[in-house]
Amino acid sequence: xxxxxxxxxxxxxxxxxxxxxxxxxxxxxxxxxxxxxxxxxxxxxxxxxxxxxxxxxxxxxxxxxxxxxxxxxxxxxxxxxxxxxxxxxxxxxxxxxxxxxxxxxxxxxxxxxxxxxxxxxxxxxxxxxxxxxxxxx
Length: 137
Fold this sequence. Notes:
By secondary structure, this protein is mainly alpha-helical. The protein has helices spanning 2-33, 35-39, 60-122.
């Protein structure tokens, strides 16, 4: 009974792991594939500004430096956003590898629990299986 219970827990964890990996992969691929569309501009960096509530707390030189940094990064960010759909295929491979490693760890957990239960039962730790005692006549 303990073997079945431990493997049921392991298979339940494997099902949750698979569901989480599938959902995160779907969200990541959708985000990467639509990264350029989500910004509303070519890169969205040109329109990026500091929040209005933060501007009074930062020296004007720093605000200008950050704005210049954003403007300088615009071409690089544009090229990365154009390459994003190609990266979605690589993300699929990475997702499968991570899912496989997690699945192997869960199966190893199941094997470890199985061996632990076998060791526990062989040492007489189970109250359900009575020990043979000497019969007195």
